Amino acid sequence: MVTILELHGYEEFQKYVANIEPNQPNSRPVVVYFSGEKLPSGESWCIDCVEAEPVVKAYLNELKKEITFVYVDVGNRETWKDKACPFRTDSRTKLMVIPTIILWNGVRRLEGSQCAKRDLLNMLFEDED
């Protein structure tokens, strides 16, 4: 039920979101998870991302909803720390910290250590009435 996509870098992210149809009836919600690039060990260089990832993965495995979950690698530490990093400056993302989870085309988001809290993930994924 959950479709997971992985994107690497800003260019792949740009191409993907350009094709999301906003507010289409019966369209699957898109949730975007921004995280630091993975090291050869398979873990991100970002400590908060390493903490959040297993919680988010476990939550997605239990989720019984039709959603598209997009994992976006924002790059290495140097790329992320650059004040001109496009993920920081893009008006659609306005990232200040990673990890960040955004309900695309909505206002709901979790930032930093919030991403590792199941109760907050529940609130993010609740259906809008």
TrEMBL record:
Stored SUPFAM superfamilies: Thioredoxin-like (SSF52833)
GO cellular component, one term: cytosol
Thioredoxin domain span: 8-127
Pfam families xrefs: TXD17-like_Trx
Signal peptide: none
InterPro entries on file: Thioredoxin-like_sf, TXNDC17-like, TXNDC17_dom
MF-aspect GO terms: protein-disulfide reductase [NAD(P)H] activity
PANTHER family (alphabetical): 42-9-9 PROTEIN-RELATED (PTHR12452), THIOREDOXIN DOMAIN-CONTAINING PROTEIN 17 (PTHR12452:SF0)
Family classification: Belongs to the thioredoxin family.
Protein name listed in UniProt: Thioredoxin domain-containing protein 17
Species of provenance: Spodoptera litura (Asian cotton leafworm)
Gene this protein is translated from: LOC111352118
